Amino acid sequence: MSTEPTPTPSPAVLAALEQVSTATITTQLMARGLRNAFLQGLTYANPARPRLVGRAFTLRCIPAREDLDVLSVFQDYDHPQRKAVESVGPGDVLVIDARGRTRAASLGHILATRVKVRGAAGIVTDGALRDMAGIERLDLPVFSAGAAPTTNLALHHVVDMQLPIACAEVAVYPGDIMVGDRDGVVCVPAHLAEEVAHEALEQERLEEFVLARVEAGNPLRGTYPPDEATLRAYAEHAGHRSRG
Amino acid sequence: MSTEPTPTPSPAVLAALEQVSTATITTQLMARGLRNAFLQGLTYANPARPRLVGRAFTLRCIPAREDLDVLSVFQDYDHPQRKAVESVGPGDVLVIDARGRTRAASLGHILATRVKVRGAAGIVTDGALRDMAGIERLDLPVFSAGAAPTTNLALHHVVDMQLPIACAEVAVYPGDIMVGDRDGVVCVPAHLAEEVAHEALEQERLEEFVLARVEAGNPLRGTYPPDEATLRAYAEHAGHRSRG
Amino acid sequence: MSTEPTPTPSPAVLAALEQVSTATITTQLMARGLRNAFLQGLTYANPARPRLVGRAFTLRCIPAREDLDVLSVFQDYDHPQRKAVESVGPGDVLVIDARGRTRAASLGHILATRVKVRGAAGIVTDGALRDMAGIERLDLPVFSAGAAPTTNLALHHVVDMQLPIACAEVAVYPGDIMVGDRDGVVCVPAHLAEEVAHEALEQERLEEFVLARVEAGNPLRGTYPPDEATLRAYAEHAGHRSRG
Amino acid sequence: MSTEPTPTPSPAVLAALEQVSTATITTQLMARGLRNAFLQGLTYANPARPRLVGRAFTLRCIPAREDLDVLSVFQDYDHPQRKAVESVGPGDVLVIDARGRTRAASLGHILATRVKVRGAAGIVTDGALRDMAGIERLDLPVFSAGAAPTTNLALHHVVDMQLPIACAEVAVYPGDIMVGDRDGVVCVPAHLAEEVAHEALEQERLEEFVLARVEAGNPLRGTYPPDEATLRAYAEHAGHRSRG
Amino acid sequence: MSTEPTPTPSPAVLAALEQVSTATITTQLMARGLRNAFLQGLTYANPARPRLVGRAFTLRCIPAREDLDVLSVFQDYDHPQRKAVESVGPGDVLVIDARGRTRAASLGHILATRVKVRGAAGIVTDGALRDMAGIERLDLPVFSAGAAPTTNLALHHVVDMQLPIACAEVAVYPGDIMVGDRDGVVCVPAHLAEEVAHEALEQERLEEFVLARVEAGNPLRGTYPPDEATLRAYAEHAGHRSRG
Amino acid sequence: MSTEPTPTPSPAVLAALEQVSTATITTQLMARGLRNAFLQGLTYANPARPRLVGRAFTLRCIPAREDLDVLSVFQDYDHPQRKAVESVGPGDVLVIDARGRTRAASLGHILATRVKVRGAAGIVTDGALRDMAGIERLDLPVFSAGAAPTTNLALHHVVDMQLPIACAEVAVYPGDIMVGDRDGVVCVPAHLAEEVAHEALEQERLEEFVLARVEAGNPLRGTYPPDEATLRAYAEHAGHRSRG
């Protein structure tokens, strides 16, 4: 299953995922039996750009070896790290398996800038980033497990791309849909993206209504989850809204 | 001792604890032999509401089991998590033992809102929170070990309330006084709240005076800790202030 | 080697290190065979003062023992912690080996203020700080592994100063140059400070030029690393700039 | 569900569980949707007694508090720890929630001996044991996360018994069936014990046959998992054996 | 460099590596600039078979996903895990990247037996093993990070083989030489195997002589490291031995 | 207090400590307010020599730096590690602060042999050992946190000796009494050694009597802790024994 080409979700599906929270998405995934979709421990760099939606473009690192991972390898423009950066396209999210190690960076400001210029939708690493002062002002959603000034060669050897990887102990297959917000990053398997997007949108509209009722002083009983009376009130409200 | 009803501290005691820092409180507790009152690793969600003071209302979680902890249990308004939320009252702090696990949330925006509407003084969990974007704007002091979008059922089974619990490796008995600020959360045993509040207030007034002297260039010798001369100066200053 | 007096770098060297990032410095250190200069896990307290440059003045802690580390020891102005604070001078960075333990603080607002008043260049601890609300407004670069209200005596016994120490699993020798910024703190061995400062400055100027090109849409090939054409363009640009 | 009385499995079911491995049991549990039945990190004390089967009798600890958890509390024969030891009966496994903390012991040789004398089937703690030299010669299956000489009061406060608990991040309800062997300890929910025991026994007989074939040089293809031909050969072999 | 075919070391080289300790090998690797060759945290299963030497045959796992990693996938004889087991040949060491996760097993007794029957030289995983009671009697050197009864599907998805992997935070390239003994497992890059084997053998003969002298009461000075006199004595001794 | 010379306990005190368990000793220390005397996580190498008693001779390591910690430093017989080995005397326990890091060894078989030949009472490190196959047959009690083949230079720089250190998060002052057995290692402050030894011996004799009663079927009530009747029986028994 993992080796077959996964169809890219339509723009409408991606647009729907832009509107829903990762909290809602993980509930939808749990309803389908998936309890491990959350990439624990990653936070966004740019407070103005926490919202991430895009297709996973994967990059894999293994530990560095002192005789292979020397500064001169970066003279090679075809080094796998550089090649991956030049391979991401519009809508892609560069997802990096750094084995959760944050003592050296996965990449820095210059490469992140190039990823942005190529039209990518974001960057996710379970490792660290360097030049964080630049990245946190970059107009691109970037999630990481922290900052580290050290160049990736000191700890990481970028080995291949577009293979299924582990990122923050979640399986990420190329083409899966990565969604990120204030709560973190989740991975939506490509084949579930459409139905999850649709139902998450519905769930979220209802929960906004429920939240307003709770803010207004309603007890949980009857309100959360909504009983029939609340659902009728919601239906009416939704009708008004869509006609409004 | 832990099973006897603990008298609720008076409003004056709680007001005094509102004014002192957790740093001062832990020093007062250490003077009484308690070295382990700090709930390590928790931070506040809302930068505008870091100050927490209230009585512990405890909630305990054990690990989820896939056959028991399914989404449908939330249809039950008497589910222990919902029941606990509807049981907290004015001045209570909902303290949740999540075994320090942050891969799923202890609760989210809707339940936190209900806790606030019921007049509670705050929420403390050694687990995570979901819908953090909403919680960090909620007018309620909420402390957690992080954010996670995943619903608590994926990892936690809420099992009972108002029993003594562990929270961040500190014992919390129902009725203990939880105090939180920028440095984190401490638990003050109920029977010590009054004397700690009183002496912490004294200590803090003196330390403000000491700090001003250090800022003015005084060396530690004679100033911190204050020697007799400094104490006389402080007494004079305090006299002026109280007359001022 | 470690026991010989290390010459203090000149003001020009320190000024150069003020201008370059820790990312650039670690690359220069890696070019010299040093892969472990980064003190992982430390962040600055005051967002307005992330930039740290100064000479390491070291302080070492071992675990507290309940019969030795009682509150009354702080009555002694010659307690090693107090003595160390009164020993740092202009340009010094107080670097504290707290064994990476953050359940109690290394120091608080009053002592940090005294360090500042004495003209020190900053504070670095792999432990925690208390009174963080005060420290994050202090006009001094302070880096730590977190906040904790508990006084250091509950966990730490300050034992000696100006010996080589471990800080965040990096060797720090008295006189080494500590540099900190948004990515964290690095330790530059004293004997390398001058050449690293010089080459880092060069590297950084070139990388600013490279970054501008990448922002302008240039691909990595030819630009990063710069090929001969890009280097010529840079040389021209640099010439213009220096004449400008 | 967790609060209803769980029927105790019949002696035949317990006898069947005595014969099968925890590896087989976890496969049977996974076939029923339970992926988290293994109490990671626990090993048996007595190499001659690794085999554990019995009903969970639970005991819960919270962190110690210096004013409550003093040596004199052990003068009270009704202290919850002592009471629990005197409450376990034949076939019970004393399962202790020590929050996975091993810096102090959950219990020592004298109490473990009393548990054995009372006819219990074993002891499981996610904490440590003291007097390990004695416990590893005790004729009782005892599993722990390590050894520690320190008495439990230094770290643990035994608070209640026969409530659902967490042990090594697995939910254990009173009456669940604990099974332990060389691979560790698993918890079988009481209501599944009978069917799991039955099918595990079947699975294990087949796997012994498969193992013999693999040892004899057969490739996995056709053998593991067994295809129809292998299953026929097994049926014949099993027939011979039951007639033999 | 990593993608070129690595020549298999000669039988003489492998035989030499059989005779030297991993302690000696890591010293030889450090002399060549490699400080990270040790796969920390792995121990052998069978006390009678701690000695491992062979070529790495790599297998990579990513986290399981509940919809992909169901028990029925093992019906497929071409499942990557089964295929890998049927691909190892004489002299191979099956090296498994399990991301250091030990909550479920990498493989069990039946597959380990098949690996042995195929003539492999051993198994190394940074995860766990199940059916440890069987594996610890298997006539094959097997190293792991622990035991776990749970089948690998509960946590791991075997994804591909013979790619460079991380194992216990060490880079392992297919064809590298794995050496294991009482101290653990080290990975010798294929291109260094011959010279390391040769010099390690030399070093070890000398150290046996040194050890005998230390046991006889000689001080370190002059003996360890050996000065010229000791080296002369060793040369004589070695001469005697080779003539003996 | 820590800098004053600590008197060495008499042979009688050391002999008493040889007879009592670390479990009993930690209880005696807790009775004196010391809850943190246990060096968590260390085990003995030689199953025939788990019993350790001796005076702490301390050795401190900081992290290695690649330019300082090269193999050639071991040519220097006065390297601090070698000097420390040649400084320990009869009755000393070499206690090594390795910051709990086990990726490289603190020392190996040759140095451990020299320590033994010099008459030392044992070795304790919170790091690892190399050449474990030799050390586990050495006639010397040696405790460590594991095995690692890598030479200490790859991770550790031995910096000084006979200063107070941290070992496994316990303060160890030169001259403190280290005691080790199957449960691990504890540090007895020198000034408490005599009274702890005396009372531990008393406690242990009583507990042997209590254990025999529990083995004989007596309930905890009246037996553990012993009530007056049991104490009288013990007194009689002890009288018989001393007259026997």
CATH class of the largest domain in chain A: Alpha Beta
Determine the number of helices of chain A (DSSP H or I, runs of at least 4 residues).
Answer: 7
Question: Could you report the average pLDDT of chain A, rounded to the nearest whole number?
Answer: 95
Quick one: which chains have the greatest interface? Answer: E-F, 31 and 34 residues
Describe the overall structure.
Six copies of one chain form a homohexamer. By secondary structure, chain A is an alpha/beta fold. The first copy, chain A, folds into two domains: 35-188, Ribonuclease E inhibitor RraA/RraA-like (Glucose Oxidase, domain 1, 3-Layer(bba) Sandwich); 196-243, no CATH class. Chain A has helices at 11-19, 22-31, 80-85, 109-117, 132-135, 193-215, 228-243; strands spanning 38-39, 43-44, 52-63, 92-97, 105-107, 122-125, 128-129, 142-144, 156-161, 165-167, 170-172, 177-181, 184-188. In chain A, the strands form three sheets. In chain A, strands 1, 2, 3, 4, 6, 8, 9, 12 and 13 form a nine-stranded mixed sheet that branches. Chain A has a two-stranded parallel ribbon with strand order 5-7. In chain A, strand 12 and strand 13 form a beta hairpin. The radius of gyration of chain A is 20 Å and the shape is elongated. The N and C termini of chain A lie far apart (45 Å). The relative contact order of chain A is 0.21. Chain E binds chain F through residues 21-23, 25-27, 30-31, 35, 37-38, 40-41, 50, 181-184, 186, 207, 210-211, 214-215, 217, 219-222, 224-225, and chain F through 66, 71, 74-75, 77, 82, 85-86, 102-105, 108-111, 113-114, 117, 130-134, 136, 146-151, 153-155.
